[in-house]
Amino acid sequence: MAGTHQSGLTAVSAWDEFRQGTIAVLPAAVAVVPFGLLLGALAAQKGLSTLEIGLMSGLVFAGSAQMVAVDIWREPAPWVLLGVAAFTINLRHLMMGASLSFHLGGFRTWQRILGVAFLADEIWAMAERRAATGQLHPAYYAGLAFLLYANFVWATVAGAIIGPAIEDPTAWGFDFAFTAIFIGLIVAFWRGSGTALVVAASAVTATLTQIQFGGVWHVLAGGAAGMLAAAVLAIIRE
Amino acid sequence: MTVDPLNLAAILAMAAATYATRIGGLWLLRFVHVTPRVRASLDALPVAVLTAVIAPSLMKGGPADMIAAAITILAASRLPLLAVVLIGVGSAVLLRHVLN
């Protein structure tokens, strides 16, 4: 049976895929450390225990949602509000998951169910980038997820412990690391003038939405506008 | 090292809500007929979402962040991602110091 039903990759190449995944995610995994330290320090200021902060990062694993949650956290914890806030901020993952689902052909069902738990922005973008140039292997995805997850969790816990000693990373420009990563990924996805149209539609819509409504709706609005622009372009080119 | 029951409830609510958004996308497409147009817009999704995340803060960041972004784009067209991040952060720190 083992001979007739193989996954198509040996253990050695699976390990190689994993290693390539950790290398690809390295910039994001480095950039997440100062962010995690700050998040942990802010959460500790709000009265969350170190164990609670570790649990939150380990179970939620969504940096921007946790940042907003810590901002609105108070005693006693408004758990319904916090759950709804996390849902709203993370609605963009619906789009990301829909797009990624095309590339999960090599994943078993349990690998999909477990894998999507780690669908942070950076991991998703790196997985899409890999899929654009070839096959996305589960071991590669695991490599992406492992390093970013590990660094995020220990950095928030460390931030909770050393709390007051943490300086605001925006003072040093660390916040720009995520912008730089995203710019690098957009350039990697570049496919000519069609991409320029998508970027323009998304940037203008997202910025206007942010100015008008605040919050996090700009991600959904910009994403939808970029997709609409691509659809219109497809109709024109038909 | 304590866990308050309400804090735990909040953490679990956030975890469940987040996971729902992450697994939901995989089911979403079962109800959509994937025509070439739908496919074209889904292919554009990574760029559209990545742009939407960073565009407003770039605009708010003023000239320092805009110039740093332009330098980052130039770097990204010829260098690996780690170097792009180092150049991007370096130019942002420098330009914010000089211009802000």
List keywords for this structure.
heterodimer, A: 238 residues, mainly alpha, 11 helices, 74% helix, 0% strand, disordered N terminus, B: 100 residues
Helix content of chain A: over 70%
Secondary-structure content class of chain A? mainly alpha
User: How many runs of DSSP E, i.e. beta strands of chain B?
Assistant: 0
Our estimate of the beta-strand percent of chain A is under 5%
Gyration radius of chain A, in Å: 19 Å
Tell me the distance between the termini of chain B. Answer: 42 Å
What is the residue-averaged pLDDT of chain B?
91
Structural notes for this entry:
- The complex is a heterodimer of chains A (238) and B (100).
- Chain A has 238 residues and is an all-alpha fold.
- Chain A is built from eleven helices and no strands.
- In chain A, α1 (11-45) packs parallel to α3, α5 (92-100) runs parallel beside α7 (121-133) and α7 runs parallel beside α9.
- Chain A is globular and about 60 Å long.
- Residues 1-6 of chain A have low confidence and may be disordered.
- Chain B is an all-alpha fold and 100 residues long.
- Chain B has four helices and no strands.
- Chain B has helices at 5-28, 36-60, 62-76, 81-99.
- The N and C termini of chain B lie far apart (42 Å).
- The model of chain B has no long low-confidence stretch (mean pLDDT 91).
- At the A-B interface, α1, α2, α3, α4 and α5 of A face α1, α2, α3 and α4 of B.
Summarize it.
The complex is a heterodimer of chains A (238) and B (100). By secondary structure, chain A is mainly alpha-helical. Chain A contains 11 helices and no strands.
Could you outline the blueprint of secondary structure elements for this entry?
The complex is a heterodimer of chains A (238) and B (100).
Chain A: H1 11-45, H2 50-60, H3 63-72, H4 79-89, H5 92-100, H6 109-115, H7 121-133, H8 138-162, H9 176-188, H10 193-213, H11 217-237
Chain B: H1 5-28, H2 36-60, H3 62-76, H4 81-99
